[in-house]
Design brief:
Length: about 300
């Protein structure tokens, strides 16, 4: 119990823990759509574009969120526009737009060397420096995103799996894509202070992929991803405090460990499903994968005797 209670005596840890839980749950939810759309690279790309905006914001003395958010949103809209006619694939559009904006930020830094120290927290995260304003902003974006995704569940579901079929059913897919791009950009911007540009993609992908290892249901995958994102944030913060390791890196490493455990459990489960169970029903002898549901249906829930 001391392990859990002792860090809570410090305000910086309480702030960081609350931010990690909210950002983890938010990134878990939106990461499900990113993974299923095959856009795992987009989180990495948009964070780099936002870095360019953050640099411009520092130069012109804007608020961090204004500069990073504006550039991230412009990048998302450009990517969406470039992929409309399908001549340019999404991975190519992400690579062109976001690396160009990141390069713009690096070019400005090379001319304004005094900015190097100020931007360390953007690159590597600064979860222990989270302020009350940051917490309020993270809470607002988390609440807005979860509310919008709850009410847009069906359009988002259709456009994620089959965009053309969604259009046939009367869903305005262009509007849905723009809304998703906006929510994704907002989620990335508020997460940059937690884990930094270099590791933000992991917070989007790891909870979603771990949930994918646990279930084949879309709705269950969303719930699992939200819970896993929050759990990874809590575990990462406590291990970071105990072993005196950078918080953002510990959160990502703890998430990777849970993902490996989920992969191992799924592998064992699938291997057991492939094991053949041969038995008799009256005069009929047959075999099937070893599943409890079959045994429950047929009433065969016992080990075959030697005579059988």
């Amino acid at each position: 119990m001391h392990f859990f209670l002792e860090p809570l005596n410090y305000a910086f840890f309480r702030h960081g823990l609350l931010a990690a839980v909210m950002v983890g749950a938010l990134c878990g939810l939106i990461g499900v759509h990113v993974v299923l759309r095959g856009m795992s690279y987009v989180g990495h790309g948009l964070s780099h574009a936002a870095f360019g905006g953050a640099v411009i914001g520092f130069v012109f003395n804007f608020n961090f969120y204004v500069g990073a958010g504006a550039m991230g949103l412009v990048a998302a809209l450009l990517i969406n526009q470039m992929t409309k006619n399908k001549k340019i694939k999404s991975d190519a559009a992400i690579g062109i737009v976001t690396t160009a904006m990141f390069a713009l930020g690096v070019a400005i830094i090379s001319q304004q060397r005094a900015l190097n120290r100020s931007l360390d927290s953007v690159l590597f995260g600064n979860i222990l420096g989270i302020t009350d304003f940051d917490l309020i902003l993270i809470g607002l974006v988390t609440a807005l995103t979860m509310t919008m995704m709850f009410f847009m569940y069906r359009p988002l579901l259709f456009s994620t799996f089959d965009n053309e079929a969604a259009q046939i059913f009367g869903i305005k897919t262009e509007g849905v894509q723009l809304l998703f791009a906006l929510l994704l950009t907002l989620s990335i911007i508020i997460s940059m202070n937690i884990v930094g540009v270099t590791m933000i993609a992991a917070t989007l992908i790891i909870p979603a992929m771990t949930a994918r290892m646990m279930t084949d249901s879309f709705s269950a995958m969303q719930l699992y991803a939200v819970a896993l994102g929050a759990l990874i944030g809590i575990g990462g913060m406590y291990f970071s405090y105990s072993f005196n390791i950078a918080s953002g890196a510990t959160i990502v490493l703890f998430g990777a460990l849970i993902f490996c455990f989920a992969v191992l459990i799924r592998h064992i489960r699938e291997k057991r499903m492939l094991q053949v169970n041969m038995h008799r029903h009256g005069n009929l002898i047959h075999s099937h994968p070893r599943e409890k549901s079959h045994c429950m249906r047929t009433g065969v829930n016992r080990t075959p005797t030697k005579n059988e």
